[in-house]
Design brief:
Shape: rod-shaped
Structural class: alpha+beta
Number of strands: 5
Distance between the termini: 90 Å
Largest sheet: 5 strands, mixed
Oligomer: single chain
Mean pLDDT: 82
Number of domains: 2
Length: 136
């Protein structure tokens, strides 16, 4: 009787191990198929459409800045959809993605030329509000 009970215990234990191994193998197969599919079609890294759009806006912003001869050292995107431009002169400009970019850049050029004439050094310029906020 004791041997039968021991046999039942062993068979239950073996069945549990079998199912754990089966689930593990299924996970390996699914992961392998996923990686194969992504590498086969050239999509190894999944980027959301929002991130792609933000990247393309950054590239177009850099192009427009170069075209308008605004000297900058770095352009970054903010968490709220804004863009931060670090000027070579040491200032920081925050552009809103909700407003027209060209009007903001025109205002930026005007403000920078005024500050150069007045001999003031820009610390921060924020275009996210109705009127630009300038910090010295």
């Amino acid at each position: 009787m004791f041997r039968r009970k021991l046999k039942k215990e062993r068979s239950k234990y073996r069945l549990k191990i079998f199912f754990v191994v089966l689930i593990f193998l299924a996970l390996i197969i699914v992961t392998g198929e996923y990686l194969y599919f992504n590498f086969s079609f050239g999509r190894a890294i999944i980027i959301s459409p929002v991130a792609k759009e933000s990247q393309s806006k950054l590239v177009s912003l850099e192009t427009v800045l170069n075209k308008n001869k605004v000297l900058y050292s770095a352009v970054n995107s903010g968490s709220d959809g804004s863009f931060t431009v670090e000027l070579e002169s040491g200032g920081e400009v925050i552009l809103s993605s909700k407003k027209e970019l060209m009007s903001q850049l025109t205002s930026l050029q005007l403000i920078l030329s005024r500050l150069t004439i007045e001999g003031k050094k820009l610390k921060k310029l924020d275009f996210r509000f109705d009127n630009p906020v300038v910090s010295f």
